[in-house]
């Protein structure tokens, strides 16, 4: 047989179903990761399901998102997570140890294994030749308890990388080029598999930049072969024994092939307000910048930061610009501290931030009104930086450093400077003292779990009603992201408190939504959301389904819905409908009364097409539900939690 690398690993992990195009399969998950902003809810749900043991080879709980700790909430969550880890045999990466994806790549990711993480950038570890996927916290909780993870057999896109990138062109430009080709829509259910001589020449951290930001195309994951470079990286992390060679069969067939010649690439940027709005840096040269932020799980490796340090060494920051640098992990920070890179950054005028998500999630370093901010992160959705009027451009560390040097956007090829070629070290500094290993089994039961006042019980939904009688409570446009549905930034600290966090559902689009929805819910009216294409892009945050569920949302009616978000909707008992005729989107108006008689039966039967009646417009509208049998049962039960809990009884 001629298998793609993706198919090989998935087949090896198959525990449910048959590997056939477009069919749902269940796979065994070897490793899980959670981060604090999604993890608290994931573990609360783990507890609610009555799961008592971790059944994975390895599960790690990271604290990297909510580390600002204004008020007691974050610290309470951290303590809850630490005691949960002790109780259930989970590794605990303490705050300060780094961003989950960077640390997982350094210390835990293994070629050929499967990883499920409650964060959409979990595919970062695809750079090590593993199938690494993002999912909602509830799916991760189930996987931790030994349950299968369900996905549709993916369509595999082969990305052939040929040639070598010229000086000043980096891995970030490769993924920006891929985004330019694939765009941010239409890739649901696909996996990008990289290969070719150009791919072989990239180091693992460079590959990880590419697989990380592959998330922005909407693919399920991205993967590189496990080869000599993978062995080198694992050896440099003292983990050579975990290396296995892995690649696709020579005659494997792909859904689509994309050829990129790295020698032809130039420095690129993603312009406001989408990671898919790609422009050559040379097109925007000369634009004054206010802020430069270097870090995030996309570009905060040792090589990234040392390259920046070399560029800035001996120079001074211009007065009109702020520069922030957040090393991706404590390993990176300690190494640049020891070799003088950190001193060079400080001398230049950089503000050194904690090894955490920080600015990327908008909970610190928000730029000024109407500013231009150049960032090395992966998302520039409007308002994500914490400043609604800011214009965020995404770029490589060298483009960002060039902007910090000049106070304006410059194509780094035009700098009067030799490209500082920094190589990946042969040995990284290994110090895992900020990762607390699991307690011995005999000691776990005695651990008492800390629950501060910020930790609430996860709400459990009612089963789906027989008939749906609702109102279009909000109608939104195309490309609504989870940042629009459930804002993070200053609202992040309420992640463990669903009633409070629910007050901010759709806040950036319609601050009155939450009040209106709660009021309708209390009057027995079902809330409905009408949406355009790619609804739920971006993060894996299940709160974008959980909080609407709490407000009584029963269905989302969209032109298309992104993979992780659609799965999260089902997991919380909200039906993800898509229009049979997209033009019907235009006829639905806010506040229309919409009925779906016999919705429960229709979902149970799985006819695929459901008829709704818009009473206000006096019009019938047809919707599709592309749910597997398992998902239909979950939706009817009101979500995965009631489904699992009732099944157990
Ligand atoms: C993000 O980058 O948007 C986040 C914050 O990491 C999210 C997770 C979350 O919302 O907690 C993600 O990417 O899944
Ligand atoms: Fe953290 Fe940003 Fe990466 Fe999300 S994208 S995990 S917020 S660094």
Automatic annotation (TrEMBL):
GO terms for biological process: tricarboxylic acid cycle. The keyword Iron-sulfur applies. One of its GO terms (cellular component) is cytosol. One of its GO terms (molecular function) is aconitate hydratase activity. It holds the Pfam family Aconitase. Keywords: Iron, Iron-sulfur, Metal-binding. Residues 7-283, 284-407 form the Aconitase/3-isopropylmalate dehydratase large subunit alpha/beta/alpha domain. The keyword Metal-binding applies. Residues 511-581 form the Aconitase A/isopropylmalate dehydratase small subunit swivel domain. This is Aconitate hydratase, putative. It comes from Methanothrix harundinacea.
